[in-house]
Amino acid sequence: MTASEIAALRTDQVTALASAQVSALGADQLAELTTAAIAALTTSQINLGLSTDQIASLTTAAAQALTTAQIKQGLSTAQVAALGTADLVVLKTSQIAALTTKQINQGLTADQVASLTTAQIQALTTAQIGQGLNTAQIAGLTTAQIAALKTGQIAALSTSQINLGLTTDQLTALTTAQLQALTSAQIRLGLSTTDVAALTTAQFATLKTSQVAALTTAQLHDGLTTAQWGSLTSAQIQALTTAQITQGLSTGAIAALTTLEIAALRSNQIEALSVTAVAALSSGQLDSMSTAALSALGAAQLNFALGSDQTAHLSTAQTQALNNAKVILPLGTAQIANLTTTQIAALTTAEITAFTTAQIAALTTDQLVNLTSAELQALTTAQIGKGLSTAQIAALTSGEMARLKTNQIAALTTRQIALGLTSAQVANLTTAEIRALTTAQLVALTTAQIEALTPTECAALTTAQTRSLTVPQKYVLTTSQSQAMVFEEKRRAELPAGSVASVAVPAAAKSKATLGRKVGELVQEIASFKAQPSSSGKASATMPALSHSASTGNSLAIATNVDGIVNLLRQFDRNGNAVALGSAPAMANGQFNTENFASLKTGVLFNAPVGKVLAGKQ
User: Fold this and answer.
1) SS3 call for 578
2) What pLDDT score does 493 carry?
């Protein structure tokens, strides 16, 4: 048939042609068929009659004349592959949409797919996208075609198509809407660490919180760049799971987080931070942490991760927010020592009592003296007795020492008493604190500390405390201190039995107390006289020995001849040193004889160091 005869064929004549007749048509003859004749071809004529060469020779007009049925049911995958790119790009969107997933997957070449217009790309159904396009075809899409995909088409991509098909360039071409269309599964299973790293910070910041939460720990740890970490919004930060925080945050990532991001972390996220992550926090980041978040730090994080410099940067509010059981206890001694005095003062009494004795011992003297009265009084007896060093005790002001509770004073060790307390501190102890001292603590006082006691403090000493004083301690007592003790002893002895201030005293002790009062009166009288050189010529003598027993205290056996006692006492100065005596002393204000000392002929000298009190030491 001539070309003109082919062109003259009616549509019914065309449909009557056998498949073999259609197959026999040459390219020139096929080109003469009208578009109506092309559209009239049956699916069998197309499928069994048209060869791939004939398909390739179709004019663009003939290609556009194909019906959706002819395309879907007539064209084989080989015939689809034979379509020229010129013919393919002129296909209507309806014709593109008519392609089966098999025709797309096994028929279209990567070059053919790459030649599709953006309109044709958008015409592809979600089934054609998800089940039709293979990874090679996906990889062949231009960035313009990628950008043209609708969000539904993006969501239709399989994880394999994303993982093996999409290139990093294509990923970076995705719009905000397209990125947000990615499902959690596509994010988690489709994106490689390289893909994740390829996303721009602007793109990453647009991800939904559910998408961020879908990222694997490997994607976070190995994929996210420090710039991407720094671009996360507060909402995205809060969307991270504890597993992502624990395993996904690298030290570099921690360093990249802004103060706003750190401030956005939830308490359970802070608790999930690894030790290395906490150690990587800068002082500025730590400062931005909320009090609730800070109190969520665990023992390991504080003890092994948080550095001394970091703890020193905690604000007062942050310090106050520390949970005593969870935060204070794990702090190392170096961390404790690095806390500022402001931070120390900001601690609650509960937090102070949570300190271990080692932590108490780690406090610097500046920190200790900056404790508030409430904090100081909150110290436990164990913290006082086992934690405080003698240097720390010595650093306390007199006022601070006076504010300690009696049980705290009683908790001091004899070493702390002897080497820690200063004379000023001793002089400022309250009467309650004085009475709280055990006999062992009192005996531990040095002579300098004894000398620092005020008469009021001396008067506050109980009978048991007074009797526990050692000979050297009694020796350094001044007249005013001794008089205060004697006066108080007399007052106690005269109190009615059973009164509030009365102390049960055995009869023997009461007789000694009466004797003591008499001795006290004599001491005052003797103190008003000044010994003069005597003419006896006696150069020296030996002081009578003091005897001591638990029942009588320190005592001096009284000689039968009272005049002998007086003469003996005159042979020693106020410090108990032997002096050379000349003529008998002139007694100003009166004479002393055996009658004056009649009361001393029997009994003992009650609690008075004879060598200094009766010899006139002031």
Assistant:
1) strand
2) 76
H helices, E strands: number in the chain: 61, 2
Token pair of 316 as six digits: 């007062």
Q: Looking at 367-371, 392-396, 399-403, 550-554, which range is the least confident one? A: 550-554
Q: Which residue has the tokens 């050692």?
A: 470
Contact between 411 and 385 under an 8 Å Cβ cutoff? The reply is yes
- Give me the mean pLDDT over the 416-439 stretch: 92
Q: Residue 607 has what pLDDT?
A: 40
Quick one: what percent of the chain has pLDDT higher than 90? Answer: 49
The number of beta carbons lying within 10 Å of the beta carbon of residue 261 is 21
Gap between the Cα atoms of 179 and 417, Å rounded: 73
Angular region, 616: left φ>0, alpha ψ -120 to 50, beta rest? left
What mean pLDDT value characterizes the chain? 79
The pLDDT value given to residue 232:
93
Q: In which element (H, E) is residue 324 found?
A: none
Predicted TM-score (pTM) of this structure: 0.55
How many whole angstroms separate alpha carbon 36 and alpha carbon 564? Answer: 159
pLDDT, tens digit (0-9, with 9 covering 90-100), for 227-255: 999 999 999 999 999 999 999 988 889 88
CA 415 to each of CA 16, 93, 420, 464: distance values in angstroms, whole numbers, following the listed order: 123, 98, 7, 21
Spatial contact of 103 and 80, defined as CB atoms under 8 Å apart: yes
Provide CB contacts within 8 A for 26, sequence distance 6+: none
Buried/exposed 58-80: b ≥16 CB within 10 Å, e otherwise:
bbeebbbbbbeebbeebbbeebb
The runs of H, that is alpha helices, within 226-369 are 226-231, 234-239, 242-248, 251-256, 259-264, 267-272, 275-279, 283-287, 291-294, 299-300, 308-312, 316-321, 333-338, 341-346, 349-353, 357-362, 365-369
Residue with tokens 């009658």: 595
Structure tokens at 387: 């934690």
Q: In this structure, what token pair is assigned to residue 197?
A: 């790293």
CB atoms within 10 A of CB 346: 21
